[in-house]
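Researcher: Predict the fold of glycosyl hydrolase.
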Amino acid sequence: MRELVKERLPEFSSQDEVNVTFDFVGLNYYTAYYAENTNPAYPDRLRYQTDSNVGIKAKKDGVSLGPQAGATWQYVYPEGIKYLLNHIKDDYKDPIIYITENGYSRVLAKLSESETLDDSPRITFHFNHLQNVLKSINDYGVKVKGYFAWTFTDDFEFTDGYTIGFGLVHINRTDNLTRQMKRSATWFSECLLKN
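Model: Structure tokens for glycosyl hydrolase follow.
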């Protein structure tokens, strides 16, 4: 890190060091990318996003990592959560892990109300991710103690505003903010009751 960041990284003394302990790891997982060495990465625009000299891309040899969801940055790769959970177990002394965010985006403006409410791709997304989480638990002994879907309702999403929906509940912004459960909300409730 010091070699890459140089003088922008402050000096730390042994008195500055802190012994880090934690009760659990909170993991947000939405997508995965291929990584490649981009040395030197943007030498004229040094900043923390490029200090690692790593470029990310969703395609390798013209083949996508997985299907693209509604958000331009999200590619569906359920196996990635399993690999990440296993990696965390191996490299961080087998901690307790809570998956604090995992969700599927859709472009709301392109959907009719019935298409918005019938969000079968979101159900498939959560089902496949939960299957991979179970593989990590059952086959690799990862200590996952919780899984939280992002998000309860369609909300304001950073650069996408209200155009992208991750929610299990639809908020109709043209009809007095009425709320309707999507199929994924019903599925999620049934899944929790059964399992």
